[in-house]
Design brief:
Helix content: 25-40%
Strand content: 25-35%
Order of helices and strands: EEEEEEEEHHHHEHHEEEEEEHEEEH
Radius of gyration: 27 Å
Length: 380
Protein backbone atom coordinates (compact mmCIF):
# COMPACT_ATOMS: atom_id res chain seq x y z
CA UNK A 1 0.00 0.00 0.00
CA UNK A 2 1.18 3.53 -0.72
CA UNK A 3 -0.14 7.04 -0.43
CA UNK A 4 -0.72 9.38 -3.34
CA UNK A 5 -0.94 13.14 -2.69
CA UNK A 6 -3.06 14.84 -5.35
CA UNK A 7 -2.39 18.55 -5.85
CA UNK A 8 -4.68 20.97 -7.65
CA UNK A 9 -3.58 20.89 -11.31
CA UNK A 10 -3.34 23.84 -13.68
CA UNK A 11 -6.92 24.34 -14.87
CA UNK A 12 -5.95 26.63 -17.75
CA UNK A 13 -7.33 30.07 -18.68
CA UNK A 14 -4.68 31.64 -16.43
CA UNK A 15 -6.36 30.42 -13.23
CA UNK A 16 -4.13 30.61 -10.15
CA UNK A 17 -6.69 29.15 -7.77
CA UNK A 18 -10.21 27.72 -7.70
CA UNK A 19 -13.13 27.64 -5.31
CA UNK A 20 -14.47 24.32 -4.07
CA UNK A 21 -18.12 23.99 -5.07
CA UNK A 22 -18.78 20.44 -3.84
CA UNK A 23 -16.88 17.28 -3.04
CA UNK A 24 -18.13 14.20 -4.89
CA UNK A 25 -16.37 11.81 -2.48
CA UNK A 26 -15.67 11.59 1.26
CA UNK A 27 -12.76 10.39 3.38
CA UNK A 28 -12.76 6.59 3.69
CA UNK A 29 -14.56 6.07 0.39
CA UNK A 30 -13.20 3.76 -2.32
CA UNK A 31 -12.92 5.46 -5.72
CA UNK A 32 -12.02 4.44 -9.24
CA UNK A 33 -9.61 6.30 -11.47
CA UNK A 34 -11.38 9.12 -13.39
CA UNK A 35 -14.36 8.96 -11.03
CA UNK A 36 -15.67 12.52 -10.31
CA UNK A 37 -13.70 13.81 -7.32
CA UNK A 38 -14.55 17.47 -6.78
CA UNK A 39 -16.39 20.30 -8.52
CA UNK A 40 -14.40 23.54 -8.72
CA UNK A 41 -15.22 27.08 -9.80
CA UNK A 42 -12.61 29.22 -11.56
CA UNK A 43 -13.01 32.79 -12.78
CA UNK A 44 -14.19 31.35 -16.10
CA UNK A 45 -16.38 28.32 -15.46
CA UNK A 46 -17.31 25.38 -13.26
CA UNK A 47 -15.14 22.29 -13.87
CA UNK A 48 -15.30 18.76 -12.52
CA UNK A 49 -11.94 17.24 -11.56
CA UNK A 50 -11.69 13.42 -11.71
CA UNK A 51 -9.77 11.16 -9.33
CA UNK A 52 -6.23 10.68 -10.68
CA UNK A 53 -5.89 7.14 -9.25
CA UNK A 54 -7.96 4.29 -7.91
CA UNK A 55 -7.90 3.68 -4.17
CA UNK A 56 -9.26 4.79 -0.82
CA UNK A 57 -9.68 8.49 -0.03
CA UNK A 58 -7.62 9.17 3.09
CA UNK A 59 -8.42 12.87 3.38
CA UNK A 60 -9.63 15.90 1.46
CA UNK A 61 -8.56 19.49 1.97
CA UNK A 62 -10.98 22.42 1.90
CA UNK A 63 -14.73 22.75 2.35
CA UNK A 64 -17.31 24.15 -0.06
CA UNK A 65 -16.67 27.85 -0.53
CA UNK A 66 -12.95 27.69 0.25
CA UNK A 67 -10.33 28.61 -2.35
CA UNK A 68 -7.43 26.33 -3.20
CA UNK A 69 -4.27 27.49 -4.96
CA UNK A 70 -2.93 25.67 -8.00
CA UNK A 71 -0.29 23.24 -6.72
CA UNK A 72 -1.79 23.00 -3.23
CA UNK A 73 -2.73 19.63 -1.73
CA UNK A 74 -6.29 18.70 -2.61
CA UNK A 75 -6.69 15.06 -1.59
CA UNK A 76 -4.70 12.07 -0.33
CA UNK A 77 -5.32 8.53 -1.62
CA UNK A 78 -4.21 5.14 -0.38
CA UNK A 79 -3.44 2.96 -3.38
CA UNK A 80 -2.36 -0.62 -4.00
CA UNK A 81 0.52 0.34 -6.30
CA UNK A 82 3.49 2.62 -5.76
CA UNK A 83 2.57 5.84 -7.56
CA UNK A 84 5.90 7.50 -6.97
CA UNK A 85 4.38 10.42 -5.11
CA UNK A 86 5.57 11.64 -1.79
CA UNK A 87 3.68 10.31 1.25
CA UNK A 88 1.19 12.58 2.95
CA UNK A 89 1.71 13.53 6.57
CA UNK A 90 -0.83 11.92 8.89
CA UNK A 91 -3.54 14.31 10.04
CA UNK A 92 -2.82 15.89 13.39
CA UNK A 93 -5.31 16.21 16.21
CA UNK A 94 -7.07 19.48 16.93
CA UNK A 95 -5.22 19.74 20.28
CA UNK A 96 -1.83 19.26 18.62
CA UNK A 97 -2.69 21.78 15.89
CA UNK A 98 -3.80 24.32 18.48
CA UNK A 99 -0.51 23.96 20.35
CA UNK A 100 1.40 24.77 17.17
CA UNK A 101 -0.47 28.07 16.72
CA UNK A 102 1.71 31.11 17.51
CA UNK A 103 0.09 33.11 20.34
CA UNK A 104 0.41 33.93 24.03
CA UNK A 105 -0.51 31.72 27.03
CA UNK A 106 -3.20 34.22 28.04
CA UNK A 107 -4.91 33.97 24.65
CA UNK A 108 -4.68 30.15 24.77
CA UNK A 109 -6.44 30.21 28.14
CA UNK A 110 -9.17 32.60 26.93
CA UNK A 111 -9.72 30.52 23.80
CA UNK A 112 -9.91 27.29 25.81
CA UNK A 113 -12.46 28.80 28.20
CA UNK A 114 -14.54 30.11 25.28
CA UNK A 115 -14.35 26.83 23.38
CA UNK A 116 -12.49 28.36 20.43
CA UNK A 117 -10.17 26.14 18.38
CA UNK A 118 -7.13 28.34 17.68
CA UNK A 119 -6.12 26.05 14.81
CA UNK A 120 -9.13 27.34 12.86
CA UNK A 121 -8.00 30.97 13.15
CA UNK A 122 -5.61 33.09 11.08
CA UNK A 123 -3.67 35.66 13.09
CA UNK A 124 -3.01 39.23 11.99
CA UNK A 125 0.27 39.51 13.94
CA UNK A 126 3.78 38.88 12.63
CA UNK A 127 4.09 35.49 10.88
CA UNK A 128 0.39 34.82 11.48
CA UNK A 129 0.59 35.18 15.26
CA UNK A 130 -2.82 35.43 16.91
CA UNK A 131 -3.09 38.70 18.87
CA UNK A 132 -5.82 39.77 21.35
CA UNK A 133 -7.79 41.68 18.69
CA UNK A 134 -8.02 38.49 16.56
CA UNK A 135 -9.59 36.53 19.42
CA UNK A 136 -11.89 39.46 20.28
CA UNK A 137 -13.13 39.56 16.69
CA UNK A 138 -13.70 35.79 16.69
CA UNK A 139 -15.68 35.93 19.93
CA UNK A 140 -17.83 38.78 18.57
CA UNK A 141 -18.49 36.82 15.38
CA UNK A 142 -19.42 33.71 17.37
CA UNK A 143 -21.77 35.79 19.53
CA UNK A 144 -23.37 37.32 16.45
CA UNK A 145 -23.91 33.88 14.93
CA UNK A 146 -25.46 32.66 18.16
CA UNK A 147 -27.78 35.69 18.21
CA UNK A 148 -28.68 35.11 14.59
CA UNK A 149 -29.60 31.50 15.33
CA UNK A 150 -31.76 32.63 18.25
CA UNK A 151 -33.55 35.11 15.97
CA UNK A 152 -33.97 32.44 13.27
CA UNK A 153 -31.72 34.33 10.87
CA UNK A 154 -30.35 32.22 8.05
CA UNK A 155 -26.70 32.83 7.25
CA UNK A 156 -25.91 32.28 3.56
CA UNK A 157 -22.21 32.17 2.59
CA UNK A 158 -21.42 34.22 -0.50
CA UNK A 159 -19.60 31.60 -2.57
CA UNK A 160 -19.41 30.24 -6.08
CA UNK A 161 -20.93 32.14 -8.98
CA UNK A 162 -22.66 34.62 -6.66
CA UNK A 163 -19.28 35.63 -5.23
CA UNK A 164 -17.82 36.04 -8.73
CA UNK A 165 -20.79 38.21 -9.72
CA UNK A 166 -20.35 40.34 -6.61
CA UNK A 167 -16.64 40.80 -7.30
CA UNK A 168 -17.19 41.65 -10.97
CA UNK A 169 -20.01 44.12 -10.29
CA UNK A 170 -18.10 45.80 -7.45
CA UNK A 171 -14.97 46.11 -9.56
CA UNK A 172 -16.93 47.54 -12.51
CA UNK A 173 -18.80 50.02 -10.33
CA UNK A 174 -15.55 51.24 -8.72
CA UNK A 175 -13.36 51.46 -11.81
CA UNK A 176 -15.71 52.57 -14.61
CA UNK A 177 -17.20 56.05 -15.07
CA UNK A 178 -20.67 54.80 -15.99
CA UNK A 179 -22.77 57.00 -18.27
CA UNK A 180 -26.39 55.92 -18.76
CA UNK A 181 -28.55 56.77 -21.75
CA UNK A 182 -32.24 55.86 -22.09
CA UNK A 183 -34.16 56.04 -25.35
CA UNK A 184 -37.79 55.29 -26.18
CA UNK A 185 -38.40 53.04 -29.19
CA UNK A 186 -41.67 52.55 -31.09
CA UNK A 187 -41.67 48.80 -31.84
CA UNK A 188 -45.16 48.67 -33.36
CA UNK A 189 -43.83 47.79 -36.84
CA UNK A 190 -41.33 45.36 -35.32
CA UNK A 191 -44.12 43.60 -33.41
CA UNK A 192 -46.13 43.29 -36.64
CA UNK A 193 -43.13 41.75 -38.43
CA UNK A 194 -42.44 39.44 -35.50
CA UNK A 195 -46.01 38.15 -35.47
CA UNK A 196 -45.93 37.64 -39.24
CA UNK A 197 -42.65 35.70 -39.14
CA UNK A 198 -43.86 33.55 -36.25
CA UNK A 199 -47.06 32.73 -38.13
CA UNK A 200 -44.98 31.32 -40.97
CA UNK A 201 -42.52 29.46 -38.77
CA UNK A 202 -44.23 26.08 -39.34
CA UNK A 203 -44.16 25.09 -35.70
CA UNK A 204 -40.67 26.42 -34.99
CA UNK A 205 -39.77 28.31 -31.84
CA UNK A 206 -41.35 31.78 -31.88
CA UNK A 207 -39.08 34.77 -32.28
CA UNK A 208 -38.78 37.15 -29.32
CA UNK A 209 -37.56 40.74 -29.56
CA UNK A 210 -34.03 39.74 -28.53
CA UNK A 211 -32.71 38.39 -31.87
CA UNK A 212 -34.02 41.51 -33.64
CA UNK A 213 -32.24 43.71 -31.10
CA UNK A 214 -28.98 41.76 -31.48
CA UNK A 215 -29.23 41.99 -35.28
CA UNK A 216 -29.96 45.71 -35.00
CA UNK A 217 -27.01 46.19 -32.65
CA UNK A 218 -24.70 44.41 -35.10
CA UNK A 219 -25.87 46.74 -37.89
CA UNK A 220 -25.49 49.81 -35.66
CA UNK A 221 -21.98 48.86 -34.51
CA UNK A 222 -20.86 48.71 -38.13
CA UNK A 223 -21.47 52.48 -38.16
CA UNK A 224 -20.18 53.13 -34.63
CA UNK A 225 -17.32 50.65 -34.10
CA UNK A 226 -15.79 52.60 -31.21
CA UNK A 227 -18.43 51.03 -28.95
CA UNK A 228 -17.34 47.49 -29.86
CA UNK A 229 -14.17 47.54 -27.82
CA UNK A 230 -12.30 46.56 -24.65
CA UNK A 231 -10.09 48.62 -22.38
CA UNK A 232 -6.86 46.83 -21.44
CA UNK A 233 -6.11 48.52 -18.12
CA UNK A 234 -2.73 46.82 -17.70
CA UNK A 235 -1.44 48.26 -20.97
CA UNK A 236 -3.62 51.39 -20.98
CA UNK A 237 -4.80 50.42 -24.45
CA UNK A 238 -8.18 50.47 -26.21
CA UNK A 239 -8.80 47.32 -28.27
CA UNK A 240 -11.38 48.00 -30.99
CA UNK A 241 -12.67 44.80 -32.59
CA UNK A 242 -13.79 44.16 -36.15
CA UNK A 243 -15.59 40.98 -35.11
CA UNK A 244 -18.73 41.45 -33.00
CA UNK A 245 -19.15 38.93 -30.17
CA UNK A 246 -22.40 39.70 -28.34
CA UNK A 247 -22.80 38.61 -24.72
CA UNK A 248 -26.35 37.73 -23.65
CA UNK A 249 -27.02 38.08 -19.92
CA UNK A 250 -28.93 34.98 -18.78
CA UNK A 251 -30.46 34.43 -15.35
CA UNK A 252 -29.82 30.92 -14.05
CA UNK A 253 -30.45 29.07 -10.80
CA UNK A 254 -26.80 29.73 -9.90
CA UNK A 255 -26.89 33.43 -10.78
CA UNK A 256 -26.25 35.62 -13.80
CA UNK A 257 -24.18 34.16 -16.65
CA UNK A 258 -23.19 35.80 -19.94
CA UNK A 259 -22.85 33.30 -22.81
CA UNK A 260 -21.42 34.75 -26.01
CA UNK A 261 -22.76 34.75 -29.58
CA UNK A 262 -19.51 34.67 -31.52
CA UNK A 263 -19.18 36.49 -34.85
CA UNK A 264 -22.75 37.74 -34.60
CA UNK A 265 -22.08 39.99 -37.62
CA UNK A 266 -21.96 36.89 -39.83
CA UNK A 267 -25.31 35.44 -38.69
CA UNK A 268 -28.86 35.79 -39.97
CA UNK A 269 -31.86 36.60 -37.78
CA UNK A 270 -32.79 32.91 -37.40
CA UNK A 271 -29.17 31.93 -36.72
CA UNK A 272 -28.93 34.57 -34.00
CA UNK A 273 -32.19 33.30 -32.48
CA UNK A 274 -30.91 29.69 -32.54
CA UNK A 275 -27.62 30.75 -30.93
CA UNK A 276 -29.44 32.63 -28.16
CA UNK A 277 -31.61 29.59 -27.38
CA UNK A 278 -28.72 27.12 -27.47
CA UNK A 279 -26.40 29.22 -25.32
CA UNK A 280 -29.12 30.23 -22.84
CA UNK A 281 -30.13 26.60 -22.32
CA UNK A 282 -26.48 25.57 -21.86
CA UNK A 283 -25.96 28.35 -19.30
CA UNK A 284 -29.05 27.27 -17.34
CA UNK A 285 -28.36 23.53 -17.32
CA UNK A 286 -24.65 23.96 -16.55
CA UNK A 287 -23.36 22.47 -19.80
CA UNK A 288 -21.87 25.73 -21.11
CA UNK A 289 -18.12 25.49 -21.70
CA UNK A 290 -15.67 28.11 -20.49
CA UNK A 291 -15.25 29.23 -24.12
CA UNK A 292 -19.01 29.88 -24.31
CA UNK A 293 -18.83 32.31 -21.38
CA UNK A 294 -15.85 34.47 -22.38
CA UNK A 295 -14.79 36.86 -25.12
CA UNK A 296 -17.82 39.14 -25.55
CA UNK A 297 -17.14 42.60 -26.98
CA UNK A 298 -20.51 44.10 -26.00
CA UNK A 299 -23.39 42.78 -23.90
CA UNK A 300 -27.19 42.83 -24.15
CA UNK A 301 -29.20 42.33 -20.97
CA UNK A 302 -32.97 41.94 -20.71
CA UNK A 303 -35.41 41.19 -17.91
CA UNK A 304 -38.10 40.23 -20.41
CA UNK A 305 -41.60 40.76 -19.06
CA UNK A 306 -40.08 42.01 -15.79
CA UNK A 307 -38.07 44.64 -17.67
CA UNK A 308 -39.71 47.65 -16.05
CA UNK A 309 -39.51 51.15 -17.49
CA UNK A 310 -35.84 52.04 -16.95
CA UNK A 311 -32.78 50.18 -15.70
CA UNK A 312 -29.12 51.11 -15.20
CA UNK A 313 -27.11 48.05 -16.30
CA UNK A 314 -23.51 47.72 -15.12
CA UNK A 315 -20.88 47.28 -17.81
CA UNK A 316 -19.33 43.84 -18.17
CA UNK A 317 -15.61 44.61 -17.94
CA UNK A 318 -13.45 44.98 -19.99
CA UNK A 319 -16.21 46.02 -22.40
CA UNK A 320 -17.19 49.65 -22.93
CA UNK A 321 -20.97 49.33 -23.36
CA UNK A 322 -24.02 47.33 -22.35
CA UNK A 323 -27.51 47.56 -23.86
CA UNK A 324 -30.46 47.02 -21.50
CA UNK A 325 -33.87 46.01 -22.87
CA UNK A 326 -36.98 47.06 -20.95
CA UNK A 327 -40.56 45.85 -21.20
CA UNK A 328 -42.61 46.53 -24.36
CA UNK A 329 -46.10 47.89 -23.60
CA UNK A 330 -49.06 49.32 -25.47
CA UNK A 331 -49.72 52.94 -24.56
CA UNK A 332 -51.22 56.14 -25.92
CA UNK A 333 -48.77 58.35 -27.84
CA UNK A 334 -48.95 61.11 -30.41
CA UNK A 335 -48.24 59.55 -33.81
CA UNK A 336 -48.67 61.29 -37.17
CA UNK A 337 -50.41 64.19 -35.45
CA UNK A 338 -53.00 62.08 -33.63
CA UNK A 339 -53.24 60.31 -30.28
CA UNK A 340 -53.15 56.56 -30.90
CA UNK A 341 -52.07 53.31 -29.28
CA UNK A 342 -48.51 52.23 -30.09
CA UNK A 343 -46.24 49.50 -28.74
CA UNK A 344 -43.35 51.20 -26.95
CA UNK A 345 -40.10 49.94 -25.43
CA UNK A 346 -37.21 51.65 -23.65
CA UNK A 347 -33.55 50.86 -24.21
CA UNK A 348 -31.53 51.60 -21.06
CA UNK A 349 -27.83 51.51 -21.84
CA UNK A 350 -24.58 52.24 -20.02
CA UNK A 351 -21.25 53.33 -21.47
CA UNK A 352 -17.73 53.80 -20.16
CA UNK A 353 -17.58 57.60 -20.21
CA UNK A 354 -13.78 57.53 -20.03
CA UNK A 355 -13.65 56.40 -23.65
CA UNK A 356 -17.13 56.93 -25.13
CA UNK A 357 -18.53 60.45 -25.21
CA UNK A 358 -22.23 61.05 -24.64
CA UNK A 359 -22.60 62.12 -28.27
CA UNK A 360 -21.20 58.82 -29.59
CA UNK A 361 -23.30 56.81 -27.14
CA UNK A 362 -26.45 58.63 -28.25
CA UNK A 363 -25.60 58.10 -31.93
CA UNK A 364 -25.28 54.33 -31.42
CA UNK A 365 -28.64 54.06 -29.65
CA UNK A 366 -30.35 56.41 -32.13
CA UNK A 367 -29.10 54.23 -34.99
CA UNK A 368 -30.39 51.13 -33.20
CA UNK A 369 -33.70 52.88 -32.60
CA UNK A 370 -34.04 53.72 -36.32
CA UNK A 371 -33.39 50.10 -37.30
CA UNK A 372 -35.95 48.73 -34.81
CA UNK A 373 -38.63 51.27 -35.72
CA UNK A 374 -38.15 50.50 -39.44
CA UNK A 375 -37.29 46.79 -39.24
CA UNK A 376 -37.03 46.35 -43.03
CA UNK A 377 -33.69 48.18 -42.68
CA UNK A 378 -32.35 45.26 -40.68
CA UNK A 379 -32.27 43.11 -43.81
CA UNK A 380 -30.68 45.56 -46.24
Amino acid sequence: MSRYVFKLPDLGEGAVDAEIVAWKVAAGEQVQEDQPLVELLTQKATVEVPAPVAGRVVSTRGAAGERVAVGAELAVFETDADTGSRPAAPPESAATAAQRVATSPAIRRRAREAGVDLATMTGSGPHGRIVPSDLDARLRADAARATGAALQVQEIPVTGLRRLIAEQVSHSARSIAHFSYVEEVDVTALESLRVQLNAGANGGAPLTYLPFIVLGLVRALARHPQCNAHFDAARQMLLQYRAIHVGIAVQTAQGLKVPVIRDAHTLSLREIDAAIRRLSNAARDGSARAADLTGSTITVTSLGKLGGIVSTPIINQPELAIIGVNRAVERAVVHAGAITSRRMMNLSSSFDHRFIDGFDAARLIQTLRELLEQPALLFI
